[in-house]
Design brief:
The structure is a single chain. This protein is an alpha+beta fold. It is about 55% helix and about 20% strand. It is rod-shaped. About 20% of the residues are buried.
Length: about 450
C-alpha cells in the first residue's frame, strides 16, 4: 500500500472514529439529561400521588369502614399506579405495562426507589415506596412514561448518522486534497531519486517552505551533489586508469618492437661494424629508457603502499645535504644553478624530498633550460620552495595534465632523453605525502615556475 493511501485511510479513520465518539458522548449526555429530568418529574408525581393515597387512607380510618381501599378514591390518582398491601398482595392497579414486582421485604423505610423498564417499544420509570397511615401499610408504585425520551434518542441517533454520512462525503475530498498536498513533495523526492537511479546525476529538487519535507528535499539535493561528485571522481579515476594502461602499453610496445627488430637483424644478417654499433646503441638507449620506466613505476608503487614518518628538518640543512646530487644533475644538463634558501623547519622525509627535488631538476633539464633558480622562504601560509627555469615551458592548456602518469609535452624529445612521463607524477605523489601544496605556472614560451608550500613546524 502506498504512503498516499495510508495517510488518506488514517485521516478517514481518525476523523470517522473521532466524530462517532463525539456524537455518541453528545447523544448520551442529552439522553441522560432528559432521563434525569423525567426522574425528577416521576419523583414529584410519586409524591403527589402518595399524598393522595395518605389522604384516602386517613379518610378510611375516620369513616370506620371496613378495611380496604376506597374504590371511589381511585379516580383521584394522576398517574397509573399499583397498590400492594403488607402481605404483598395487589390491592389495585391501573398500570397496563407489564413490570417486575419488587421485593418489598428488602425495602427500607424512608427511601424512595425506582427502576426503568423497556418492553414492546414502551419505556417507563417506576417509583415505589412504603406508605404508612396509622395502622395501615400500603406499597405504592407509580408509572411515568418516558417513551418520548427514548424516541427522541433514537431520532437523534438516526439524524446523527445521516449528518455523519453527509459530513464524511464532504470531508473525504478535502482529506484527499490535503493528503495529496502532503505527499506531493515526497513524490517529487521519489521521482528525483528514480531519475538519479536511471543516471541523471545532475537532477535536483525544488525546495519550497521550511517544513520537514523541505528539509528532506534539501538533504536529498545535498546527497545528489555528493553522488554526482563521487561519480565524476570515479569516472575520472577510471579514465585515468585506462589512460595509464594505454600509455604504459604504448611505452613498452614501441621500444620492445624496435629492440626485437634490431636484435633479429643483427642475428640474421652479417652487418658492417658501423651498422652493428648503431643497432647496439639504439638497443642500449631503449633498454635504459625501459629501466628508467621500471624504476619510476616501482617508486610510485612503493609510495602508494607505505606510510612515511615525517621528521622536523631544517630546510637549509636539507639542501646542504642535497647540494652534491643537485650540482651533479645540473652538470649533466649544463644548467647554471642559482639557489637561495632561508632558514625554516618543515616535516619531511629526507629520501622522498631528495627524489622530489632531483625529479624537478631533471624535468627542467629535459626542457632545455640554461638556468634554474631555487628559492626557499617563509610565508604566512607556510614554507615556500620555488623552482624556476628558462626552458621551453609547458603550454597553458596542458598545465593541468602535466602530473598525469605517462603524460609528456614533447614525446619525441622525452624518449630521446629516456623520459617516461612519470617525473611530475612522482613529484605530485611526494607532495601529497608531505601534506603540502603545489602549483605550476607556464606560458609555454619562457620557462616554468613551480611553487611548493609546506607546513611550518614549531620552533621557527
Amino acid at each position: 500500500m502506498k504512503l498516499f493511501h495510508k495517510i488518506f485511510l488514517c485521516f478517514i479513520l481518525i476523523f470517522g472514529i473521532s466524530f462517532q465518539i463525539a456524537g455518541y458522548l453528545l447523544i448520551n449526555y442529552a439522553y441522560d439529561s432528559a432521563v434525569e429530568q423525567q426522574k425528577k418529574y416521576a419523583f414529584q408525581e410519586f409524591q403527589y400521588n402518595k399524598y393522595i393515597l395518605q389522604s384516602a387512607l386517613y379518610s378510611e380510618q375516620n369513616s370506620q369502614k371496613e378495611k380496604g381501599f376506597n374504590i371511589a378514591e381511585k379516580k383521584n390518582f394522576t398517574a397509573p399506579v399499583a397498590l400492594y398491601g403488607a402481605d404483598e398482595k395487589c390491592l389495585f392497579t391501573n398500570i397496563e405495562m407489564q413490570f417486575d414486582v419488587p421485593n418489598f421485604k428488602e425495602k427500607e423505610d424512608g427511601n424512595i426507589s425506582y427502576w426503568i423498564t423497556q418492553r414492546n417499544g414502551e419505556s417507563a420509570i417506576f417509583v415505589y415506596d412504603c406508605v404508612q397511615q396509622g395502622k395501615s401499610t400500603v406499597y405504592l408504585i407509580t408509572q411515568t412514561d418516558i417513551s418520548s425520551v427514548i424516541g427522541t434518542q433514537r431520532n437523534m441517533i438516526k439524524f446523527f448518522q445521516n449528518i455523519y454520512l453527509v459530513i464524511l462525503c464532504v470531508a473525504s475530498p478535502v482529506i484527499l486534497l490535503l493528503t495529496r498536498l502532503i505527499t506531493h513533495s515526497i513524490q517529487n523526492v521519489s521521482k528525483g531519486a528514480k531519475r538519479i537511479a536511471e543516471g541523471s546525476y545532475f537532477e535536483r529538487i525544488e525546495v519550497r517552505g521550511k517544513d520537514e519535507i523541505s528539509e528532506l528535499a534539501a538533504n536529498f539535493n545535498q546527497m545528489a551533489e555528493k553522488i554526482e561528485e563521487k561519480i565524476t571522481e570515479l569516472n575520472d579515476t577510471a579514465r585515468a586508469k585506462e589512460d595509464f594502461v594505454a600509455n604504459f602499453s604504448h611505452e613498452l610496445k614501441t621500444p620492445l618492437t624496435s629492440v626485437i627488430g634490431y636484435a633479429d637483424m643483427m642475428y640474421q644478417k652479417e652487418l658492417p661494424r658501423e651498422q652493428v654499433k648503431d643497432a647496439a646503441e639504439y638497443i642500449l638507449n631503449e633498454g635504459m629508457r625501459l629501466e628508467a620506466l621500471s624504476l619510476k613505476l616501482m617508486d610510485l608503487f612503493v609510495l602508494g603502499k607505505q606510510d612515511f614518518l615525517l621528521e622536523r628538518i631544517s630546510v637549509r640543512e636539507l639542501f646542504q645535504n642535497l647540494m652534491q646530487g643537485i650540482e651533479l644533475m645540473c652538470r649533466k644538463y649544463g644548467i647554471e644553478l642559482h639557489i637561495n634558501i632561508a632558514e625554516g623547519n618543515i616535516g619531511a622525509d629526507y629520501d622522498l624530498f631528495k627524489t622530489m627535488i632531483l625529479n624537478l631538476i631533471d624535468n627542467a633539464g629535459k626542457a632545455d633550460c640554461k638556468d634554474i633558480w631555487i628559492v626557499g622562504e617563509t610565508r604566512k601560509n607556510g614554507y615556500q620552495i620555488q623552482l624556476k627555469d628558462n626552458g621551453s615551458g609547458i603550454p597553458e592548456e596542458e598545465v593541468g595534465r602535466i602530473t598525469e602518469a605517462f603524460y609528456m609535452v614533447d614525446k619525441s624529445r622525452a624518449r630521446k632523453q629516456h623520459g617516461a612521463g612519470l617525473g611530475l607524477t612522482l613529484v605530485s605523489k611526494i607532495v601529497e605525502i608531505h601534506k603540502a601544496g603545489m602549483k605550476i605556472y607556464s606560458d609555454g614560451k619562457t620557462g616554468t615556475v613551480i611553487y611548493i608550500v609546506f607546513c611550518l613546524q614549531e620552533g621557527n
